[in-house]
């Protein structure tokens, strides 16, 4: 959960957004929706899915920045 929240902060900073709250709220909603899941295997699958989704978002942003001629790995 914390990893996902930190990733939201990072993405918001890279995007130049004043707040990461919209991304964080999406993450929180998913975690709340599945908070009663007790199967460790299923919990790990959902965690990996969350990280994969945020990572895909990062890749899309990096691709867009590269197309625009910006270095996606340099702070803005």
End-to-end distance, in Å? 26 Å
What is the count of β-strands?
0
What percentage of the residues does DSSP assign to strands (E)? under 5%
Report the helical percentage.
Answer: over 70%
The outline comes out as elongated
Whole-angstrom Rg: 14 Å
Give the rounded overall mean pLDDT: 79
Largest sheet: none
Briefly note the structural class of the backbone: mainly alpha
Put simply, the count of helices is 3
SSE ordering: HHH
- Regions with pLDDT < 50 over 5+ consecutive residues? none
Question: Quick gist of this model?
Answer:
The chain has 76 residues and is mainly α.
How would you characterize the overall build of this protein?
This protein is mainly alpha-helical. It has helices spanning about 1-15, 20-35, 40-65. The longest helix is centred in the C-terminal third of the chain and has 28 residues, at about 40-65. The chain starts with a helix and ends in a 9-residue tail after the last helix. The mean pLDDT is about 80.
Describe the structure using short key phrases.
mainly alpha; elongated
Topology at a glance:
Elements: H1 2-15, H2 21-33, H3 40-67
Helix pairs in contact: 1-2, 1-3
